Structure formats: structure tokens, C-alpha cells
Amino acid sequence: MIFYPQERMGLFIDGSNLYAAARALNLDIDYKRLLEVFANKGHLIRAFYYTALVEDQEYSPIRPLVDWLDYNGYTMVTKPTKEFTDAQGRRKIKGNMDIELAIDVMEMAEHLDHIVIFSGDGDFRRLVDAVQHKGVRVTVVSTTKSNPPMVADELRRQADNFIDLTELEDTVTRPSTNHTSNQPDYIDEEGYIDDDELEYVE
Questions:
Q1: Which fold is adopted by the domain 8-201?
Q2: How many angstroms separate the CA atoms of 18 and 24, rounded?
Q3: Is residue 183 over pLDDT 50?
Q4: N or C: which end of the chain has fewer CB within 10 A?
């Protein structure tokens, strides 16, 4: 990892994407440790965490995490999920946060020297290119060790640095469990929920 102590740094965590990568590796992310690790590598200005919330549930499995992050150094960016019916007539719920993350990265770019994006989504390649043209270095955190790899090749190539999540295992995770608790099971890496999985949490 290439970091400089004088750098102004921002973390941008795509919650559902990081969850999918960590679950594929059977890792349990410790968000307190994660914040400490990156705060020690530079001047951490802000750490954003993006997730969608199912608002009509009596209890949301992710709400305790959202509240904890909100009180412990993270800037939470949430929005309600949207329900739609796909071509096969299945009820699905969409909770994609790509636009919110991209807007915040562009707005913060002038205040930062180094942006760290926790996502493997290839849609962010153009975003990375844009902020690099503003003189900002970009590190992408995801994994190639899962099957299939969670990081898009075009995003990995565009980034100045790539950190595989497995490289952070000793410093930002808890002892291995079934999978991480940073997103409920019904949200996949694309931010979608299918009706079978939704019935499971209801």
C-alpha cells in the first residue's frame, strides 16, 4: 500500500459491494479497526458509508450497524429502497448507491489528495479517471481472490493502487465467522433483492 502521511484522504465505502466481497472471502469486517488503519496512513478527512434501507420493515437487520457507524466516525449516506417487477414478473427491490457515491467523490475531490474506494464495480472506472484528472490519487479496495473475482478488471487497471481485501485481513477483520454482518443477506453486490430472499427476512 502506498500512502503518505501528509495526504488528505477520504474513504468511500460501497456497503453492499464490500459486503459481497467480504462474504465471498468469509471475512468479518471490523469497522472500528478499518477506520484506525486508514487514519494512521494519512490525514483522514472523511469516511463515507453507503447503503440502502428497506423502510417498511418492522426491523431492519442493518439498522444497528448504520446507527453504530453514524456515532463512530463514519458519514452515513442512505436512501430508501425502491420496489419494481422484473421481466419475469418477480418482485425486486433496488438499493443501488452508485450515484450518491459518485457525486460525493466529485464534490470532495478538490479537498482530498487520495481517495480510497471500497468497491469492485466497473461502473466507477470513469469516476476514477475523472478525479485522477484533478490530481487526486485513487486506491481501490476489493478482491480478485473470490470466484469469480469481485473487482472489474477495468476498474483495477484505472486505479493508481489496488488493495486486495485479503491483504487487510489481519488488520481490519474480526476472527472468521460465517460471513460479515455489514449488510443483510437480502442485498447483493448490485444492490438488488429478489422476492425469495425478501420473504426470508420478513
A1: Rossmann fold (3.40.50)
A2: 10
A3: no
A4: C
